[in-house]
Amino acid sequence: INLKTNFTQHALSEISELNSKYAIILYRWLSMNYNQYEHYSVKGGRREEQVENYRNPTMSIRELREITDTIDEYQDFRNFDKWILKNPLDEITAQTSLQVT
Q1: Would you say the C-alpha torsion 13, 56, 63, 76 has a positive or negative sign?
Q2: How many angstroms separate the CA atoms of 101 and 93, rounded?
Q3: CA distances from 42 to 3, 12, 23, 97, 100 (A)
Q4: Does 101 fall in a domain?
Q5: What is the distance, to the nearest Å, from the Cα of residue 70 to the centroid of all Cα atoms in its chain?
Q6: CB neighbours of 25 closer than 8 A, spacing ≥ 6?
Q7: Within a domain: residue 32?
Q8: For residue 69, is it within any domain?
Q9: Backbone angle region of 19, left / alpha / beta, with phi > 0 → left and psi within -120 to 50 → alpha
Q10: For residue range 37-60, what is the model confidence (pLDDT) as tens digits?
């Protein structure tokens, strides 16, 4: 089985620098999208719009709550923004090669 070509790879050295479980979850999701961007921007096989969506991915708040398992937590959006978005994204930018906003 050629696992290398069939699954997203994450740099363990970068993940090991992350302290927040939410930073790890977001890093893995962002890394997966960026890996697809790099692949399809070189190899083709996707429309330009699709490739750009991999480069600058978006998700709904509902999807974000689902992947972070916070559907019933952080109901006050100020807390959600701080603990699920701002702090983890700042940590990803500071500790990994991804620069995210």
Answers
A1: positive
A2: 8
A3: 20, 24, 28, 20, 22
A4: no
A5: 16
A6: 67, 68, 88
A7: yes
A8: yes
A9: alpha
A10: 989 999 999 999 999 999 999 999
